Amino acid sequence: MSKQYDHAYFERWYRDPALKQLAIGGKARLARKVALAVASAEYHLERPIRSVLDIGCGEGAWRAPLLKLRPKLQYLGFDSSEYAINRYGARRNLRYARFGDFEHLRPCPPVDLLVCSDVLHYLDTRELDRGLPALAELCGGVAFLETYTREDETDGDDDGFKRRPAKFYRQRLQALDFTALGSHLWLAPHRRDGLAALERLG
């Protein structure tokens, strides 16, 4: 039976009081991630962000904290959960797509902040490799690509988790000319020339 990102899934992992310490969508934890991503993008762009693309957005949890920080920004989310899109798509500007669909899908110009949080380590390698080049093409500033690896101690949803080494992702993202900034942040390919030596990892 394939994994279902349905109402029960989001209730369990995002809102179950019994899993408060592990909750993927805990408000305070999410707010810190959003603030980190926004600040990093604005640091490198040297202006407030105006656009965000969220690939694997689920119910669009990033939208509200992003708009709280930058009320005028344009937010667009994509997810493969029919439940999430049917329930929240119209209100939160969410659309249906699987990650692999981004092999051909280019829904917008490059954005200031691209988010793909807690997604890549659940994808089969073939689908990941199909969609991954789009991240580089659609990122005009900074990408927040929260991804966990074989080297990490993880809590939470292990169903379908691919225990790949960190170098698996690092090699693929570097091949696309992303530059690692740390804390799951990657600088868009065309912006790396302006980096100081100690602003990048490695």
Model description:
The protein is α/β, with parallel strands linked by helices and 202 residues long. Helices cover 35% and strands 16% of the residues. It has 6 helices and 7 strands. A 7-stranded mixed sheet has the order 3-2-1-4-5-7-6, with helices on both faces. The radius of gyration is 16 Å and the shape is globular. The chain starts with 6 loop residues before the first helix and ends in a 15-residue tail after the last strand. The relative contact order is 0.14. The mean pLDDT is 90. InterPro entries: Methyltransf_12, SAM-dependent_MTases_sf. Pfam families: Methyltransf_12 (PF08242). Keywords: Methyltransferase, Transferase. One of its GO terms (molecular function) is methyltransferase activity. This is Class I SAM-dependent methyltransferase.
Summary?
With 202 residues, the protein is of the alpha/beta class. The chain has helices at residues 7-15, 27-45, 63-69, 82-92, 125-138, 166-175, and strands at 51-55, 74-79, 94-96, 111-115, 139-144, 179-182, 185-187.
Terminal CA distance reads: 41 Å
Q: Give average pLDDT, whole number.
A: 90
Approximate shape? globular
Main β-sheet, in a few words?
7 strands, mixed
> What share of the residues lie within helices?
25-40%
SSE class: alpha/beta
Rg for CA atoms = 16 Å
Count of DSSP-assigned helices? 6
Order of helices and strands: HHEHEHEEHEHEE
Strand content bin = 15-25%
